[in-house]
Amino acid sequence: MNSTEAKRPSLFSAILPIFILVALLAANVHLFGEDSSYGSNQIALLLSAAVAGIVGIRIGNSWDEIYDGIVESISSAMGAIIILLLIGALAGTWLMSGIVPAMIYYGLKVLSPEIFLLASCIICSVVSVATGSSWSTVATVGIALLGIGIALGIPEGWIAGSIISGAYFGDKMSPMSDTTNLAPAVAGTDLFTHIRHMVWTTVPSITISLIVFAIVGFQGSGDYNPARVIELTNAMDATFNITPFLFLVPVGVILLIIKKMPAIPALLIGTLLGGLFALIYQPEVVAQIARAANSGDALTNYAQQSYMALMASIMQETSISIPAGTVSPETEEALASLLSAKGMAGMLNTIWLIICALTFGGVMHACGLLKRITDALLSMVNSAASLVATTAGTCIFFNLTASDQYLAIVVPGKMYADAFKDYDLAPENLSRTLEDSGTVTSVLIPWNTCGVAQSGVLGVAVLAYAPFCIFNWISPLMTIFFAYMGWKQTPLTQKK
């Protein structure tokens, strides 16, 4: 049966799979806690996809159409999946080479708890604007900043929140960002008109965020122990050959991305350079990893030792042991998390969750259930301001259901383009709303590709960091606020 012969689903039928998904996810969080993303949430997404498929078949969709929708949805994330694997590999070689420990070492020397949250948000903003990638920013300087913040005694939720706020601000405002190029292309405006229009809502949002991080930092957001910081830096100095030359690798990767090299080859080069610098600067660490990979037996052949250490750091979880008696047991416990990396294998659970989330989104889209819900939303629009609010809500809805920020930009962009024209709103109003709502809220959802990715990279659960991503919460509210106040809503007639 062709999709044109399928009946229009009722609103209840369209919403039913979402109700079931929310109920199952809530049960998982209640029963499994932070471990819910390690299997139970994946099963919840697949069961909800099955319900959506049953609804689709009942209204006339064929299995082939549903299957094609699943394949198309998962295929759209293949680039992200490869990037995740390379991020795991990069984290492993950058740990073995001492790059991440050097970042933490020097960071602890110059950053204090009072300014840390503010500084980490600004640093990630600058790097993300330069690279155009929130994912690359979090995977490089973000990991190091997390380690510094933990060593300073700051709660990891606040640390991750400041990192992600800065990274997504930069991603949103960078002309090299894929989403910043996608939104105006879908809406029908040009890149720099889009960026200039975003300034009006984005600058107030990041300003409020920086003020919040500054206030929290100066009021004291954690348990700072100067003696432990000294112990940590001494232990890293005793374990690694700490030198500023190690920063050549992350600087090189950032320059490659600035020069518009795609993320996948840039991350691969960064991974291999990390391995090379490990062989040059950290021979003792290389020997330790090779010995662990060889079931505790030392290798006398340096070539075999180097190869095993490189492969082990890329493919599996790696932990570096510090010299015995260097630190107190409490500090040694803190170092255990700082001096470990997951490798590619550590990303597999994240990829599993992404595939299951996109399966659910693919079925919902293929069966027309998402369109039915958004049509109902559009029927409630009765003013230009309510159109902006509805568009923002639809972007968040697609992040929740389709589990992909690109779909959360493309589909609402196509849906509401004519409506914006009908209300005499220029295309840049639509593109700004798409970014203010679609791009930044994706990371707040535990089963969205962005939320899964950043949680996997940082090792902090989405529900643990989401409340502290101040910029990501304020952005959609700011764009709705501007719409209802009638501020900076460029009319279409003015453009003609």
> How many DSSP H or I helices?
25
Computed Rg: 24 Å
How many independent structural domains? Answer: 2
The end-to-end distance, rounded to whole angstroms, is: 46 Å
- Characterize the overall form: globular
Q: Structural class of the helices, strands and pairings? A: mainly alpha
Task: Provide mean pLDDT, rounded.
Answer: 87
Helix content: over 70%
Number of strands: 2
Low-pLDDT segments, ≥5 res: none
- Physical arrangement of strands within the biggest beta sheet: 1-2
Strand/helix succession:
HHHHHHHHHHHHHHHEHEHHHHHHHHH
Largest β sheet strand count, sense and barrel closure: 2 strands, antiparallel
* Proportion in β-strands: under 5%
How would you describe what is shown here?
This protein has 496 residues and is mainly α. The protein folds into two domains: 3-74 and 347-462, no CATH class; 79-341, no CATH class. Helix content is 75%, strand content 1%. The chain is built from 25 helices and two strands. It has a two-stranded antiparallel sheet. Helix 6 runs antiparallel to helix 10, helix 8 runs antiparallel to helix 10 and helix 9 runs antiparallel to helix 21 (427-441).
Q: What's a concise summary of this model?
A:
This protein has 496 residues and is mainly α. The chain has helices at residues 11-32, 40-58, 63-75, 78-96, 99-110, 113-131, 134-151, 156-173, 178-187, 191-219, 226-239, 248-258, 263-281, 283-293, 302-315, 329-338, 348-366, 369-378, 384-401, 405-422, 427-441, 449-458, 462-465, 470-485, 492-495; strands at 318-319, 340-341. The chain folds into 2 domains: 3-74 and 347-462, no CATH class; 79-341, no CATH class.
